[in-house]
């Protein structure tokens, strides 16, 4: 926590979360990563029940929904702590894509949708996934997509091809982005529709291997085929044509969630790097940490992590006070900046550990595989940099 961004509520909750992560998850994280997720999930379920019992469950939700009523600024700091282990967010039911779907349904879902899908998701009884990206269209320009939802009486008939639908394996439902009116204005063409994964025509084609790891369950990325997949019109979220608006509502907070998660990973990797530098003998009477290059990496990493954290928390605070639209450019800025810091810190930590760093004996290789996509998903670095630059140049008269 940082004093200028803390609160009375956070002062009580943060130490509890920190103790839970360090005592319950750190000792077992490496063992769990070496197991198939479906096996590890049995142990993690026990930790999830413990988190509920300790009052740590869904802290971003209001107390009447079982949470702690944290603001974005408060939750961002909890999220950093959770991210220091691969299973922190999962054990408090704060993991993507579920957290984004919970926030979306909480704000825009109908009472029927909340009863059928949202409440079991909040309780941790089910998981969900978010189905937007398509292999045949550039993800950096989401207005282009081939998935359609054709209205047929009181049903939508969905056809399309999605991939990188994270955590689809084992999910109970997907929120699907699909074209519902090809003739509408550009940003009114698409809608979001809930599709239970046991619906005929919903086909999980495969879990996509990422850097050699296919994964399963929550730790996977699915390729999905929708083939004449029929769902009732009551599964439409908010209204026809609101898909892009809902995507922006989901992506703004989601990018802050990602950034604080990345900072938590950076802190753990930084700690590992420093411990290695301080204890690794070079065999000539010197320690690795005495080497100037290592010292440079440590100094640069400390400065970059601290800078990223302040930028993200400032953005979170502004979002709390002024809303998502007011921080659109700030979110673009923190997204590419923090992703770059993440990759630099991970790379330095791996290099500091030498050959050990690229093995699965440490967390570093897991994070490198799973987080290299940070510079791609939710908008590639280049798109966010362009958005920031265009906004700046407007002030100088460039149209």
Order of helices and strands: HHHHHHHEEEEEEEEHHHHH
Distance between the termini: 41 Å
Shape: globular
Number of beta strands: 8
CATH architecture assignment name of the largest domain: Up-down Bundle
Work out the helix count: 12
Give the biggest beta sheet: 5 strands, antiparallel
Give the radius of gyration: 22 Å
Give me a quick take on this structure.
With 399 residues, the chain is α+β, with helices and mostly antiparallel strands.
Write structural notes for this entry:
By secondary structure, the protein is α+β, with helices and mostly antiparallel strands. The chain folds into 3 domains: 3-94, Orthogonal Bundle (Butyryl-Coa Dehydrogenase, subunit A, domain 1), CATH 1.10.540; 128-240, Butyryl-CoA Dehydrogenase, subunit A, domain 2; 244-394, Butyryl-CoA Dehydrogenase, subunit A, domain 3. The chain is 49% helix and 14% strand. The strands form 2 sheets. Strands 2, 3, 6, 7 and 8 form a 5-stranded antiparallel beta sheet that branches. Helix 6 (98-108) packs antiparallel against helix 8 (243-279), helix 8 (243-279) packs antiparallel against helix 9 (292-322) and helix 8 (243-279) runs parallel beside helix 10 (328-353). The two termini are 41 Å apart.
């Amino acid at each position: 926590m940082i004093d200028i961004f803390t609160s009375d509520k956070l002062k009580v909750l943060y130490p509890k979360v920190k103790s839970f992560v360090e005592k319950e998850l750190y000792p077992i994280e490496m063992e769990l990563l070496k197991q198939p997720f479906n096996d590890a999930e049995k142990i993690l379920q026990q930790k999830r029940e413990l988190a509920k019992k300790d009052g740590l469950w869904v802290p971003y939700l209001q107390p009447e929904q079982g949470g702690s009523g944290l603001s974005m600024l408060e939750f961002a700091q909890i999220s950093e702590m959770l991210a220091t282990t691969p299973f922190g967010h999962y054990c408090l039911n704060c993991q993507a894509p579920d957290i984004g779907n919970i926030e979306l349904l909480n704000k825009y879902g109908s009472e029927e949708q909340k009863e059928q899908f949202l409440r079991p998701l909040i309780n941790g009884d089910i998981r969900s996934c978010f189905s937007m990206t398509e292999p045949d269209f550039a993800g950096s320009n989401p207005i282009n997509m081939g998935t359609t939802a054709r209205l047929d009486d009181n049903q939508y008939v969905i056809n399309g091809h999605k991939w990188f639908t994270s955590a689809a394996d084992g999910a109970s439902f997907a929120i699907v982005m699909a074209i519902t009116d090809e003739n509408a204005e550009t940003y009114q063409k698409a809608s979001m529709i809930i599709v239970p994964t046991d619906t005929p025509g919903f086909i999980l084609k495969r879990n996509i291997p990422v850097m050699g790891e296919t994964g399963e369950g929550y730790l996977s990325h699915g390729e999905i085929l929708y083939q004449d997949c029929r769902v009732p019109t009551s599964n439409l979220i908010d209204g026809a044509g609101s898909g892009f608006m809902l995507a922006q509502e989901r992506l703004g907070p989601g990018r802050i969630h990602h950034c604080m998660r990345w900072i938590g990973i950076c802190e753990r990797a930084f700690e590992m790097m420093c411990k290695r530098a301080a204890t690794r003998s070079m065999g000539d009477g010197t320690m690795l940490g005495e080497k100037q290059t290592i010292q440079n990496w440590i100094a640069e990493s400390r400065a970059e992590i601290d800078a990223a954290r302040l930028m993200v928390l400032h953005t979170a605070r502004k979002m709390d006070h002024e809303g998502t639209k007011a921080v659109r450019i700030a979110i673009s800025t923190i997204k590419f900046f923090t992703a770059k810091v993440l990759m630099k810190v991970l790379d330095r930590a791996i290099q500091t550990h030498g050959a050990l760093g690229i093995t699965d004996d440490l967390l570093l290789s897991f994070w490198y595989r799973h987080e290299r996509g940070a510079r791609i998903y939710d908008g590639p670095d280049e798109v966010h940099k362009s958005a920031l630059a265009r906004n700046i140049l407007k002030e100088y008269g460039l149209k």
